[in-house]
Amino acid sequence: MVSEVDVEFRDSVAVLALNRPVANALSPSLRQALELTIRSAIDDNTIKAIVLKGVGQGFSSGVDIGEYEGPLENPWVGDLCHLIENAPKPIVAAMHGVALGAGFELALAAHARVADRAARVALPEVTLGLIPGAGGTQRLSRITGAQVALECLMTGRVIPVNDPKFRRVFEKLVDGDPVEHAIEMALELASKGTWIPTRDRHPGLTDPEAYQASVQAVAARIGNKNCAERDIVRCIEAAQLLPFEQGIQLERVLFEDRLTSKAARASRHFFAAERRANAMPDLSKGQASTINVVALLCQGVLAVELAVQCLDAGQSVMLVNADGSAANAVTDRVAALYDAAVNRERLKEVVRNERLARMKITDLPRALQQADIFFDDASLVLTDGLPAVKSTAVWASVNGENCDLSRLKKVHAEGKHVVLKHSRPAHSTQLIELAVPYGTSSDSTASVVQSLARSRRTVVRSALVPGLLSDNLNFALFGAALALCEAGVMPQEIDEAACQLGFPNGPFALADVLGLVEVQNRHNRLCDARSLKAPKALALLTARIAAGAKGRAVGRGIYCYSDGKMRPDPECEEWLENWHRTCEADRKPASDIGQALLAALVNEAARLISERRVLRASDLDIVAVKGMGFDRRLGGPLLQADFMGILHLLQEMKSLASLDQDIWTPHPKIIEMVKYGQGFFGRAT
I need a labelling partner for 448 at 20 to 30 A (CA). Which of 54, 169, 208, 618 fits? Predict the structure, then answer.
């Protein structure tokens, strides 16, 4: 078996190199190998000092989050840090690339750190609902003080090693490979025979009042919330008040408690879901071509948003439009957005100018010959006799629906076609749903996914069905809201329950934002696609539209808007009260409204999964969070369903089915999951 730690001897220095794909993650096997090699080097009388380094692109990415789902194996990273810090020979960390989480904690335990100036470090555990578990809170605060340590730990941001705040963390910064410099420093420490372990360094503790002031300021902002941030504050405070070993013990206890918390499990779940989302069968078969030039065959606000998205990603944009004034309007709006960013000091003027220089208006024949991808909303008429697109080009319909084959034939784009649906606004939100029509090449799919990943978008694969994934989830949520409204629950109650569930807006407030006409049309389209009757409660939208209350844009919809505030509309409430009396629908369900909404979403998700409309259950949590605004910290509605219990939701569905059979009649998959004690993500909890 090949060791995951390479050993090289240089001038009586043992250079131990972490060598595990990918990114030198500190797996149990790597930790075991590192412990053995460090102990061997300590016991070897010919070795005076030790240098730790990473092979490849960085020092270490830390512990793989998959290990957090089960018992932690020995040796734990904290044990390695104890071994390093208490070694009788000097150990120097030579750092390049990135050192994240437990990888950075290893380096903090070393007796000195030498880093490439381009290297970066982070303790990002808080983004997973965790705290460091190998002494990071105790060692970093001793070096930097509370303020810098809290800034690093509370944000989880990646920080350049040459940041002035970290000047005490690194003994030496160099240009390029730091190994030779680390060897020199290790030999120098060995010749002196003395060095100060990090545990005994106290430059960050020299001003007790300032230290406590920083701790108390952050503690006051957090309050009594049960969260990882509060535990971090407790650990930083302990670094000053408790002996080192007690501080380490406190950190380990809080780390292990946090590890099993629902908040941490939700954070890990969503992190893993994001990583899995781009894993599609086509990508292993296809050869991606680089997409540098984008042609926009679309109009209006979507064209503006897509232009900004592509320009931000470093691509060139060709605006193609039969109406020159419309194309000019797009360029003016894009320029205005960038001007606003410059005025708010979020973008430098030189960057704005460079991006705008990559956008131009052109004719369709030229675009067909030059562009690598076409974003098409089918608004532009394609005539006969047009040149063919490039052999590697991709034709992307951006309205979430398949386009007419004759349209593709006119530009010879058959087999190069994908369907996209952007969450809006497309230039600032991250989710893009992708559907691949039959006959599309794997090369085209690979090219578009690679391009969207380049613009830092999360791509979720959907079957080519009306509405793709997000519209169908919204259909279930809004359908449930209509059924509850018909049963006598007022829109404000429903929206408040949706917000408590984890959504930023309730279904009726969102309908006002989107416009009642658009929401009504979309709901009717999906009813038609499923051969379902439109729900009676759509009469509410019909009545509001007839009264001119078409949504937030006109100041009135389900709610009324004045002074920038949303308030219940007395006319809407009066209409509902009269309607309830007319249809004798005053039969409020006994169920919790939030649980009723969740049950509808879960039932729809079971249908999508069972009918193979989606690759995996976690993709639906991605859609809910990034496409519908569900609270990321909760992991997604399907994970929350697992926490609540599928059996409990099945009982909710049965009690609610009389309100709307199509929404709440339990899907056979739900019944099967309960029968076998399963959740969406493993055994039922």
Answer: 618
Tokens of 575: 């209409």
Q: Could you tell me if 483 and 537 are in contact, meaning their C-beta atoms sit under 8 angstroms apart?
A: yes
CA diameter of the chain: 94
d(CA 670, CA 653) in angstroms, rounded, equals 10
For residues 394 and 436, is the Cβ–Cβ distance under 8 A? no
Please name the residues in contact with 535: beta carbons below 8 A apart, sequence gap of 6 or more.
Answer: 479, 482, 483, 486, 523, 527, 660
Q: What does pLDDT average to over the chain?
A: 92
The average pLDDT across 297-304 equals: 89
Residues 476 and 524 in one domain: yes
Residues 6+ apart with CB under 8 A from 193: none
Is there a domain that residue 275 lies in? no
Question: CATH no. for residue 542?
Answer: 1.10.1040.50
> Domain limits at 482?
470-683
Evaluate if residue 381 carries a pLDDT over 90: no
Question: What percent of the chain is predicted at pLDDT more than 70?
Answer: 98
Are 497 and 555 in the same domain?
Answer: yes
Tokens of 23: 């990114």
pLDDT at 275: 86
The whole-angstrom separation of Cα 78 and Cα 255 is 12
**Helices and strands per DSSP (H, E), number in the chain:** 30, 21
Residue 285 lies in a domain: no
Confidence (pLDDT) at 564:
78
Phi and psi at residue 91, in whole multiples of 5°? -125, 125
pLDDT digits (tens, 9 = 90+) for 56-98: 999 999 998 888 888 889 999 999 999 999 999 999 999 999 9
Find the catalytic residue in 4, 67, 69, 125: 125
| Residue that has been written with the tokens 């780390």 in this structure | 255
Is it the case that residue 322 has pLDDT exceeding 80? no
CATH number for the domain that contains residue 449: 3.40.50.720
pLDDT score at 383: 87
Q: Is 22 helix (H, G, I), strand (E, B) or coil?
A: coil
Among the listed residues 4, 8, 69, 105, the single catalytic one is 105
CA distance 648 to 642: 10
Does the pLDDT value for residue 220 go beyond 60?
yes
Assess whether pLDDT exceeds 90 at residue 582.
Answer: no
* CA–CA gap between residue 22 and residue 66 (Å, rounded): 14
**Is the N-terminal amide bond of 75 cis, ω within 30° of 0?**
yes
Residue 274 bears catalytic tag = no
- Residue 672: active-site member: no
Q: How many Cα atoms are found within 13 Å in the side-chain-facing hemisphere of 222? A: 19
Length of the chain: 685
